[in-house]
Specification:
Layout: H1 2-32, H2 39-57, H3 66-90, H4 99-119, E1 127-128, E2 140-142, E3 145-147, H5 149-171, H6 173-183, H7 185-190, H8 195-221, E4 223-224, H9 228-243, H10 248-268, H11 279-293
Antiparallel strand pairs: 1-4, 2-3
Length: 307
């Protein structure tokens, strides 16, 4: 029983990380039906932005008050990257066939990886990430179950981000604008909604959550590298599809389910098909099974008829 609880805790931690990134995918898709495969690199750049902020301003300091400023640095870099990406790469292709922005997203993903590898000092290998007092350090133990301090931060960040996103979409003018553009951008434009501004806001919100996830990843693993965005982005996309692409709560549920499934596969599948080497295999097997029997995802894809 203790082993089961331990794997559930591990899975919820990993799933919270996936969910934070997956929400960015699904917010953008819900507005303009774009699968932004460069979103994983926005997550990676957020982690490097936090590290750069710490290195330039606070190197050697691990006090808790440094963390909010690191988060601000990560958010600033990620949001700037996402907004520039939307303005110069995706907006000119908005009326093009869907394959064009998809290929562009893959190209941007590779370009961002290479930019960090070539221009960030030491990025060709793993770089130690600062361990901040209180949110990192000796693990907590509850009845035999070990919980990393950074795991508490990750789950808390997901809960706060989900609450913020719900409030923003349902209680603010921009959030109502996002819902209108999601339903019908042409009609929304006729009703006075600035569609371009709403799309930029969607990219910015996705980047903000990805930046928080990047910091959480650094705190959990104690290191970052320029390749970290590729697999994490792929898993987050899988989580978004698993929960129901375009459905924000579906992205959260999909991320948590995917994380728990990976952890249980590591802990309980015996023999040569178990262990951490096979966790990615079982994650995608789960995706295939769900899509075969429920193609719309766990909570249902949000599909809008714009004919």
């Amino acid at each position: 029983m203790t082993e089961l609880l331990q794997q559930l805790v591990n899975g919820l931690t990993l799933g919270s990380l996936y969910a934070l990134i997956a929400v960015g995918y699904t917010v953008v898709y819900g507005i303009i039906q774009l699968i932004n495969f460069a979103h994983g690199e926005v997550f990676m750049i957020g982690a490097f932005g936090a590290l750069a902020t710490w290195t330039l301003l606070f190197e050697g300091t691990t006090a808790l008050w440094v963390l909010p400023i690191m988060l601000l640095g990560a958010i600033l870099v990620s949001v700037t990257t996402a907004v520039l990406m939307e303005r110069f790469a995706y907006r000119p292709l908005r009326g093009a066939p869907r394959l064009a922005p998809l290929i562009t997203a893959i190209g941007i993903s590779v370009a961002l990886q290479e930019a960090i590898r070539l221009f960030y000092p030491g990025a060709k290998s793993k770089i130690p990430f600062p361990q901040i007092d209180v949110v990192t350090g000796p693990a907590l133990t509850f009845g035999g179950v070990t919980v990393q301090r950074a795991a508490v931060f990750t789950v808390g960040a997901l809960l706060m981000s989900a609450a913020f996103l719900w409030w923003f979409i349902n209680r603010t003018r921009s959030g109502h604008g996002m819902q209108a553009v999601s339903e019908d951008p042409d009609t929304a434009r006729l009703m006075g909604v600035n569609v371009d501004r709403i799309i930029v806001i969607a990219f910015a919100i996705g980047a903000l959550l990805a930046a928080v996830a990047g910091v959480a990843q650094g705190l959990l693993n104690a290191n970052i590298d320029f390749r970290m965005g590729f697999l994490a982005g792929l898993k987050a996309f899988t989580a978004a599809v698993l929960g129901g692409i375009g459905n924000i709560m579906g992205a959260v549920v999909g991320g948590l389910v995917l994380g728990v499934a990976e952890a249980l596969a590591v802990g309980f599948i015996p023999g040569q098909f178990g262990g951490s080497a096979w966790k990615d295999v079982w994650a995608f097997v789960l995706l295939i099974v769900v899509l075969v029997f429920r193609p719309q995802g766990i909570l249902g894809a949000r599909v809008v008829d714009r004919a």
